[in-house]
Design goal:
Structural class: alpha+beta
Strand content: 25-35%
Strand order of the largest sheet: 3-4-5-12-7-10
Helix content: 25-40%
Radius of gyration: 16 Å
Shape: globular
Low-confidence stretches: 1-8
Distance between the termini: 30 Å
Number of helices: 5
Largest sheet: 6 strands, antiparallel
């Protein structure tokens, strides 16, 4: 997890994300301990994320999304402005998990009335990103590799994807994304809620 504190205070996105995480926990009436039990994330990490002392990793956000029944894009869009019909490349929200070497661009932020979204993912060479559960069970994903080589493991089956390859799957359990090549892997992730 990256430390985001500077003399000016926490990153604005991390501050809004922390506040939203605290709101969600309060809406459910859970203590930090109860949320820690439900999510498998330590009470300390949850507290520090809610106070924007740290930026949660993708794996931590994934666990919280599972508990709250949201995709990561939905959660992140809740801390951004209302999405427009046309979203210029320069205005697409970017979130970075520096600890894992993962950069995520919300190409088409989710809309409450729609089930699909597009995400651009980038993994640094050697980056290995593991999720112990899907944010929403049965989530449909289409993974289209644009550059580099990506290894995706789902249901204990490893798929090696090179530029141009596309994998479609439904996510019920753990998944793993690994940049297997000597250069960055860049891919499009199309996500469809069940």
């Amino acid at each position: 997890m990256k430390q985001n504190l500077t003399d000016a205070g926490p990153d604005a996105v991390d501050a809004r994300l922390g506040a939203r995480l605290a709101e969600l926990r309060a809406e459910h009436g859970w203590s930090l301990g109860e949320l820690a039990e439900r999510s498998g994330v330590s009470r300390s990490t949850l507290s520090r994320a809610e106070r924007a002392e740290i930026s949660p990793t993708a794996a931590v956000l994934n666990r919280l999304c599972n508990v709250y029944g949201r995709t990561m894009s939905q959660l992140l869009s809740e801390v951004e402005a209302e999405p427009a019909l046309l979203l210029r490349a320069a205005d697409q929200p970017v979130w970075e998990d520096r600890a894992s070497g993962f950069v995520r661009r919300s190409v088409s932020p989710p809309h409450p009335g729609l089930r699909g979204e597009l995400v651009e993912g980038r993994l640094a060479p050697g980056a290995d990103l593991a999720y112990d559960r899907p944010p929403v069970p049965g989530l449909e994903q289409h993974i289209w590799v644009l550059e580099g080589t990506l290894e995706v493991t789902a249901q204990d089956v490893e798929h090696r994807l090179d530029a141009g390859d596309c994998l479609r799957l439904r996510v019920w359990g753990p998944t793993r994304f690994r940049c297997a090549g000597p250069r960055e892997a860049r891919y499009v992730l199309a996500v469809v809620l069940p």
